[in-house]
Structure formats: C-alpha cells, structure tokens
C-alpha cells in the first residue's frame, strides 16, 4: 500500500470534457500508475471527506515524441473518474 494518500492522487485534470463531467458529479484526477481502484477510493474519501460511489480508471500509454533528431516518450499516466 502507498505510504500516504496524497502520494496516490497527483492532480485534478481540468479540461472541457472534465468540466462537463463535473456537472454530473464526476470528478477526474491524475493518479499514481501503481494505485488500484480501492486505494484511489480510500484516498479520495480521506482527503476530501466525501462518499465515492464508483471509480473508473484509464491507463494512458505514452506517445512517441521527437525534437529534432532526439526521440523519446513522455511518462505513463493513469486517469480516473469518480462518481
């Protein structure tokens, strides 16, 4: 298990799509890629003092990027939405 709940939840995701989902009480966060749904649910409930109904997660694969002759990949990300 993670050492701290704040290590699991990295940051909120603020986009047009997440703002539209927020009107339906669905909040979107970027979370640690090693965290599972149970850990995410417990962390959100402890940090924000709310009751989480369900957790949906998406593993976002890094896309290849190029800058001149240098190629690489950004870091892997996990996104989750809460009802």
Written overview of the protein:
This protein has three helices and six strands, in the order αβαβαββββ. The protein has 83 residues and is an alpha+beta fold. It has one domain (5-82): Alpha-Beta Plaits. The strands form two sheets. It has a four-stranded antiparallel beta sheet with strand order 1-2-6-3, sandwiched between helices. It has a two-stranded antiparallel sheet with strand order 4-5. The chain starts with a helix and ends with a strand. The mean pLDDT is 90.
Brief synopsis:
The chain has 83 residues and is an alpha+beta fold. The chain has helices spanning 5-8, 16-22, 37-48; strands spanning 9-12, 27-31, 55-60, 65-67, 70-72, 77-82. The longest helix is centred in the middle third of the chain and has 12 residues, at 37-48.
């Amino acid at each position: 298990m993670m050492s701290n709940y704040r290590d699991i939840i990295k940051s909120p995701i603020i986009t047009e799509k997440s703002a539209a989902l927020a009107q339906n009480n669905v909040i979107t966060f970027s979370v640690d890629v090693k965290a599972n749904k149970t850990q995410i649910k417990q962390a959100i409930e402890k940090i924000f003092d709310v009751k989480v109904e369900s957790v949906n997660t998406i593993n976002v694969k890094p896309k290849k990027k190029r800058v001149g002759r240098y190629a690489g990949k950004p870091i892997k990300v996990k996104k989750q939405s809460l009802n």
